[in-house]
Amino acid sequence: MSNNILLILTLTIPLAGIILILLSRKNPNIRDSVTILTASTLFIANIFLTINAINIPKGTSFVLINFFPGGSIQFSPEPLGLIFGLIASGLWIVTSIYSIGYMRGKKEQNQTRFYSFFALAIAATMGVAYAGNLITLFIFYEALSLSTYPLVTHHQTANAKKGGRTYLGILLTTSVVFFLFAIIWVWSITGTTEFTPGGILDGKLSPFMTGLILLLFIFGIGKAGVMPFHRWLPAAMVAPTPVSALLHAVAVVKAGVFSVLKVTVFTFGVENLFSNGASQFAMYIAAITIVVASIVALKQDNIKRMLAYSTVSQLSYIVLAAMIVNTTSIIGSTMHIASHAFGKITLFFCAGAIYVASGKTEISQIKGIGKVMPWTMAAFTIGSLSIIGLPPTGGFISKWYILLAAIQNEEFIILLVLIISTLLSAAYLLPVIYAAFFQTSVSKFEHSEAPIAILIALGVSVSLIFLLFLFPNPIYEIAKLIGT
Amino acid sequence: MLSQLPALQVVIPLIAAPLCVVLRNKEIACLVSQVVSILSFLISLILLQQVLQEGIISYALGGWLAPVGIEYRLDILNSFILVIISGISSIVTLYSKKSVNFEIESEKIYLFYTGYLLMFSGLLGMTITGDAFNVFVFIEISSLSSYAMIAMGKDRRAVSAAFTYLVMGTVGATFFLIGVGLMYSMTGTLNMADLAERLPKVYDTKAILVSFAFISIGILLKLALFPLHLWLPNAYTYAPSVVSAFLSATATKVAIYILIRFGYSVFGSDFVFSKYPTAEILASLSIIAIVVCSIVAIFQTNIKRLLAFSSLAQVGYIVLGISFNNINGLTAAIVHIFNHALSKGALFLAMGCVAIVIGSVKIKDINGLGKKMPFTAFAIVISGLSLIGVPLTAGFISKWYLVLGAIDKGWWPLAIILLLTSLLALVYVWRVVEVMYFRSDPNSPEVKEAPLSMVIPLYILVAMTIYFGIETSFSAGLANEAAEYILGISE
């Protein structure tokens, strides 16, 4: 099949899934199988697209609509987008399995709406991944914000609505005010917004202006969670756990850092940014975010909130790596998209598993829970190791490249930040493991392990963590092609 | 025949108006206005086609050549505006029958259509004429008839709204006339093209400065720029739905066209923008209009009133584009005249549907409208998205050019404010959407959708809102050409 057909398929498969989900709303078993089937088909389509696109050296592009000269809806698969597309669609399968266990275990209402909007959010994610220019990226970025709103407010309680309002408010405001502004600015300078290897702004702006527009992008892409526009992420934790797991550890937040990376490589150009040093300021903002968010995470008792702040901190690793701007750093940040996705989704799955099995949400409540939920807590331990960045997990690999990039550019302050944050992440994650396995509970647990569907999903995500450590080559090879 | 089209453009509705009085039949009056509107629309399309192919059309009315006689002068800009006016009129009249039957007393309906046709021809005349005094004549024709039509609204407050409009409108028209008189005394001509030639010689005189001040304030009153907007909210709120839709989509837009015409073509941008801080004054007023009126819109309980304040804000966007005095700003202004006519026209038509079915256009009365009137509610959502400027709707295109214009002008903070204000639009649109879709009203009886004869015209506008958000060669393309022509940048 040609690339264009595969591209259209990646966008339409989730949409077709929605129709099927709605049609089978009367029978939950069929409906949930449809979700898994759609996710699997999408993943396969993405694999084929990757194989096809990697072999075409120049890349292809597919224009859907032309608004005005230089402005169009356009898709072009390139290595960075392909990696993101693969991760998001692959983990959608795992999350679908997990969702079945979770949503049924919690006897949630409105499950059909839940699965429909989930598929819609994935469709928007695919659009973000394969966007061929800034306008397309912006449109699908906004679509992703809007389609996840009903998922965040799924419980429809006052609390959920409040969280949803913060979520949508921050994401929309930052994107419309800064992101769109930056896009129009770029268009007014260059007359195009197309993603071009090497960037389109090379030599067109002074270092100061380059830095200013870069900041507009980084703050405008609120999904990347760079402080001070990170508050939507903890607010979004009112959502059911599968949403937090796939969307707020993978799809939505990664759409953010992915966009930052994409803009860095294809709008500004790595060499352009490196030679004029315009990314320095943004790099330090990301560094501050890493440290501050880790410290805030230390203070949290609610597991999901702690994980949310950990995510804010980890996202800024990716932004920071992008801002170091050399080849290694781009590879490192791409690898970190993958490794953090696997690690954090595992941790969220565990938090949800604990909640489904025991109803517990706070760290202080789960003392000794390792005895009754050994598998869940083992998975939590492995996920934590990956987030901290210890072998034998995928997190070690990506952190390695980011450290390497910092050393190459002699950014020693950044090196120090990375070391401190590693210690901090150990400090907020290890107590959970310690409490679960080594402390004794006050009351007796009257439940056993989480539902089997949840454990299967955990098994898959944990294997991915190990696989990324053992065989990082496939992703590395694709990441090496970014921007060529 | 073909060469007489410019005259026919105005004359046909002008003759049809008394015809309605003579026939005294509401069915026929409605039919006449429909036929006339569609005929005018076709004429305007042919004229646009001619202008695009052959350039400016100059037509001497009654065979009297300018500057003695009245000249009708068509260029890309006003032939585009003619298409907008007559196109909107076609849709509005097709829609009008049931709505007018519901909102106007039966024995007055033929008078309603008479007034409508007069207003229609007045607006067309203002647009097409190349004679400064003639503009005043047509302003009066369209204004007087619109006062009468607003007063026909069902609510008794319509009368006082019409009276306020009458006072303000008359002041505006008089100011305009004083300005034109001063110009005449200095140059000895009323023909716009002649004026443009002769004015530079007398640029430095006090009389021309005073004339400029009178004319611009007069026009700003008609187009309702903050703080000269006080007549508009009540007029739009209490006028019959058809009138609100037509006025909001065309009347202020024609006044904006006059502003562009006098600012750029008659006085010339050298005089207007180089000698005086006009750009700064217009831009600050527009920004205040956008911010204040959007915020006021958020707190309205009557949706028509909410839309009226939103219109004021949108007028601010257009005038802001004009004040930039650059190609992107002017393109934004012209394309927004078109795009806003589509979306605001659709919203007011949708309110007419709500009024006929629910009997009220208050926010508290439309709980669960998404279930009761799915088509109307969806139309409101799509047009609302265009007001906000969401991508893939027409409104996005306008916003894009407007921000570009601000960047070109070097006013970056303004660009940020502009984008921020679209969030205000988001808030007032969301208020309506939330009530329609996220609140149910179990007590109310089952209500059905509005009649098809109203929903179909509504959806023509909605479809165009989407279409012109995706394919912009007609809207933005023409606006861009018109802007280039007005600014004197020819290829």
What can you see in these coordinates?
The complex is a heterodimer of chains A (484) and B (491). Chain A is mainly α and 484 residues long. Helices cover 74% and strands 2% of the residues of chain A. Chain A has one domain (3-480). Chain A is built from 18 helices and 2 strands. Chain A has a two-stranded antiparallel ribbon. The mean pLDDT of chain A is 85. With 491 residues, chain B is an all-alpha fold. Chain B has a domain at 284-491. Chain B contains 20 helices and 2 strands. Chain B has helices spanning 5-23, 26-54, 76-103, 109-128, 132-151, 157-187, 192-198, 206-223, 232-238, 241-266, 269-275, 278-298, 303-323, 327-358, 369-372, 374-388, 394-409, 412-438, 452-470, 475-486; strands at residues 57-60, 71-74. In chain B, strands 1-2 form a two-stranded antiparallel ribbon. Chain B is globular and about 70 Å long. The model of chain B has no long low-confidence stretch (mean pLDDT 89). The chains are: A mainly alpha (484), B mainly alpha (491). The interface between A and B is medium-sized, with 19 and 24 residues.
Strand content of chain A: under 5%
Major sheet characteristics of chain B: 2 strands, antiparallel
Strand arrangement, major sheet of chain B: 1-2
* Main beta-sheet strand count, sense and barrel state of chain A: 2 strands, antiparallel
Inertia-based shape of chain B: globular
Q: Sum up the overall morphology of chain A in one term.
A: globular
What would you call the structural class of chain B?
Answer: mainly alpha
Strand element count of chain A: 2
Cα radius of gyration of chain B in angstroms: 21 Å
Subunit organisation of the chains: heterodimer
Low-confidence stretches of chain A: none
Overall pLDDT metric of chain B: 89
- Average of pLDDT of chain A: 85
Structural class of chain A: mainly alpha
Strand order of the largest sheet of chain A: 1-2
